[in-house]
Amino acid sequence: MRILLLPFLGLLSACTLTLEVVYPGHRITGLKTQGTYCASANTRVDFRFSLEGRLDRLEFFWIPEGLSPSQARPEERYTLPGPIDSGEVRGFVEVTPSGGIQAVSLAWPSGAALRPQGVTVEPLPERRLWLRGHTGGLAGPYVRATNPVIPDSFPYCDPDW
Question: Cα(105)–Cα(2) distance, rounded to whole angstroms?
Fold first, then answer.
């Protein structure tokens, strides 16, 4: 019987078992914002995106057009804590005429919402919203809004989608 076991043990020693932990991650798609913000009054710049998976936190970047999020100054970034569940996510970034962010708020289909939280950035006329989600301590890719947000100097500005 031992003679039969020896070849079997020899075959087992040639085999290896590899376990790989795969990060399920998340995916943000279809980030869109309204096209303008008021040059004469505060504006809630609406945004929406689709989220697959769950986020532990969400980073916002309100930066001048043409810059990447890695070039954002500390005051041009804001991290909103989660959790944020999958689905169609909508919200707003409240901006001043000079380009400062006063508040960030969002809601998703489960009815949950995160209350407005604020940060201030220095003014520049044309900006673009970027996002980056985090799950399990790992950062996802940067996601760029499909359009820039430009100031509207009309005195009775009422930006809309």
Answer: 70
The arithmetic mean of pLDDT across residues 121-130, rounded, is 66
Which parts of 27-145 are beta strand (E)? 27-33, 36-38, 43-52, 55-64, 77-84, 87-95, 101-107, 113-117, 127-135, 138-139, 143-144
CB atoms within 10 A of CB 96: 16
Report which of 88, 96, 142 is spatially closest to residue 112, judged by C-alpha positions: 88
Residue 25 is predicted with a pLDDT of 81
Q: Which residue has the tokens 């399990």?
A: 136
What whole-number distance in Å separates Cα of residue 92 and Cα of residue 72? 20
Note the pLDDT of residue 47. 92
pTM summary value: 0.70
* Rounded Cα distance, 24 and 8, in Å: 37
| Rounded-to-integer distance, Cα 5 and Cα 11, Å | 10
